[in-house]
Amino acid sequence: MVRRGTDGEPVLRYLLDEREGRPWADLLEVLDESVDAAGFIRAELPGWVVSSSPGLGRELVARGARVLRHAHTFRRDLRADPPPADWAGTPLREGLRAVPCDRAPEELYEAWRAAFPPGHIDHYPGEKAQVLAERLGLLLEGKSIGPVLPSSLLAVDAEDRVVAGLILTDRDGRPWVADVFRHPELGYRGLGADLLRRAIGDAGARGLADVTLVVSEGNPARRVYESLGFVLQETSLTVVVPDAG
Are 183 and 157 in contact (CB under 8 A)? Predict the structure, then answer.
């Protein structure tokens, strides 16, 4: 999507999406450096969510925008750097087995919620019904990012209870890790890395070119991603632009 100025010249380019019930200008780029981009966004995109460079994000914050997320995008190239052949069969911790990610959101909720409690940098607020309807439900239905890919998987225990999971989606043709979660109170430290290895190995075996994910600033999981071959692509600041008026 390209947004033009009054003279018809292109000023901004972005991917149009939706976030928190608002229109979302993701991966926003400024095409005309002579324009006051922050002022243009305030005037043209009031009430929108905008993901852009940290510099532009800070300018928007200085003009009243609210920060949603400071994040880093990482990519694992599966062709230039193919995963080891045995990754797709990475064993899980004792007593666990891997199953397809085809269960109802209610079955994932307990582990997912425990993985991102209040105070966690990626905590999603709201009561259970709201989370199931607006976050997990839409994600698993492929309506919030894109279709859930078959390389996604869940880890279940001897009671068939979901204790962890990895949800890989198709985001406009890009394999995108939407969530990696583990119920911390049940133990199994390192399980998230095991799930990533299995998903990356399976994605490579299916012929996918790469896998992309986003990690919030300050999340220690970044070290895990880097150890598994993910390389930093860009850093962004996501903000909510003040409403008009």
Answer: no
Nearest CA to 185 out of 113, 106, 108, 127 is that of 113
User: Do residues 92 and 98 make contact, with C-beta atoms less than 8 angstroms apart?
Assistant: yes
Query: What are the extents of the domains in the chain?
Result: 2-71, 82-228
**Is the model's pTM score more than 0.70?**
yes
The contacts of residue 3 (CB under 8 Å, 6+ apart) are 10, 11, 12, 13, 14, 40, 44, 45
User: What's the CATH class of domain 82-228?
Assistant: alpha beta
pLDDT tens for each residue of 108-152: 999 999 999 999 888 888 899 999 998 999 999 999 899 999 999
CA atoms of 107 and 155, how far apart (whole Å): 12
Q: Which pair of structure tokens corresponds to residue 233? A: 């692509």
Q: Residue written as tokens 């940290």?
A: 54
Nearest of 233, 235, 232 to residue 58 by alpha carbon? 235
C-alpha span between 28 and 15 (Å, rounded): 7
**Where do we find the tokens 């062709």?**
79
